[in-house]
Amino acid sequence: MRDLLMLLADGGFHSGSDLGRQLGVSRAAVWKRIQRVTEELGISVQSVPGKGYRLTQPLQLLNHDVIQRVFPALPIYIYESIGSTNDQAKQLLSEHSAPMAVLAEHQTQGKGRRGREWVSPFAQNLYLSYVWPITEGLNQIDGLSLVVGLAVTKAVKKITGISAPLKWPNDVLINERKVAGILLELMGDPVELCHVVIGIGVNLNMLDSFNSIDQEWTSLSKETGSVIDRTLFAQVLIEELDGYLEKQKNHGFASMRAEWLALHAWQGRNALLQIGNNTVSGQIVGVGDKGELCLLVEGEERRYLGGELSLRLQHDS
Fold first, then answer.
1. Tens of pLDDT, residues 225-250
2. Is 312 an annotated catalytic residue?
3. 3-state SS string for 268-315
4. Helix or strand run (H / E) with residue 201
5. Is the CB of residue 129 less than 8 Å from the CB of residue 198?
6. Same domain? 171 vs 294
C-alpha cells in the first residue's frame, strides 16, 4: 500500500486511471487498494467523480534512505503497519545484533506503561524503538527513562524551539499536556549480555481527538501551528538519543541529574504516588542519582524507584 500512499501523499486529486498506470494495475485494483487503505490504516480518502481520489489531509511518510544515510552504521528498520515497534524490535533481536532502530508509520497495538494503549494513527506521529545493549552491568540502566526523556526534550527544542518539561519517570509535557512517552523493556539475562528496548512515542502532527486517550495530550503541530517534518524529527531524535546513551554508559545518570532537574515539571508540587494498592502523599523534592523519585512525606524525605509506580498531582485525585 505504501506505493499508493506515496502517490496520494500530496493531498491532491489523482484519477483512478493515472493511479492505475503508475502502479501497473487496473482501475478496479486501485479501488480495492483504496478500500484497504481506509479499512486497515484508518486513512480517510475522498472519491469525487470526474476528479478521482485524494486524501482528506496530506501525508508525510518516513524516508528510510535519508535517515539511514545519516547513521550508516546503525541498522534502521521502517514498517508500514505493525503491532508495536517494541515487539518488532524484540523479534529482530533474535536474528540481528544491537544497537538498532525500529520505526513504524502505524501501530495496531501501541503500548504505554502499565498496559495502556498508545494511540498510533498512520503517518501522523513518531513511533520508535531503539535497542541498546547492556554491557556494563545493570547500573547502566539506572535512571535510563529519565535520560531518554532528556533526549526527547532536546529533539523537541531543536525542531520547534519549545522547551518541553519532564514528568517523572517517563513523560514529556508541553503546557501540562503529554506530548511524548517512554516505555523500557529489558530483554535477556542480566548476569550475561542483555538489552533494553527503548520505546518512544512522540505526538507530532496529530490534531484529532481520540476517545481512547485518557489524559490531557497535545502534539508539536498543535503547539506550533505548523506541520512537523517526521523524517527530520526521527533523525534528530536518534542523534540525541545516541549522544545521551553514550553519556549514560560512560558516566551514569548522576552526571545528567542537574540537567534533568532543570526541566522537572512538578518540582516542589504536592503529589500522590500510587504503589500497587497503596498511595503515598507528599511534596516532590527532586530525584536521586539513580533516578529515584524523592518525596517529602510527613517531614521526612523518602525515595522511590522501580515497580509499577504512578505519579499524579494531588489536585488530580
1. 999 999 999 999 999 999 999 999 99
2. yes
3. CCEEEEEECCEEEEEEEEEECCCCCEEEEECCEEEEECCCCEEEEEHH
4. strand 194-202
5. yes
6. no
| Beta-bridge partner residues of 102 | 77, 129
Helix ranges restricted to H, the chain: 2-8, 16-23, 27-41, 64-70, 85-93, 144-160, 220-224, 230-251, 257-261
- Confidence at residue 189, expressed as pLDDT on a 0 to 100 scale: 80
- Domain with 31, as residue range(s), is 2-55
Q: Are residues 243 and 122 in the same domain?
A: yes
Query: Is residue 2 annotated as part of the catalytic site, yes or no?
Result: no
pLDDT of residue 192: 76
Catalytic pick from 33, 167, 178, 257? 178
Kindly report the CATH number assigned to the domain that includes residue 12. 1.10.10.10
User: Of residues 33, 113, 230, 257, which has the active-site annotation?
Assistant: 113
Quote the number of domains for the chain: 3
- Helix (H) or strand (E) run with residue 82 in it: strand 76-82
> Of 116, 247, 302, 312, which one is the catalytic site residue?
312
Cα-based torsion angle of the residue sequence 69, 70, 73, 76 in order, rounded to the nearest 10 degrees? -70
Q: Which residues of the chain carry a pLDDT beneath 70? A: 110-118, 209-214, 307, 316-317
Cis preceding-peptide flag for 72 (omega within 30 of 0) = no
Is 178 assigned a catalytic role?
yes
Decide if 31 contacts 16 (C-beta within 8 A).
Answer: yes
The sign one gets for the Cα dihedral 85, 76, 248, 149 is negative
Q: What is the pTM of this model?
A: 0.88
Chain mean position to CA 181: 6
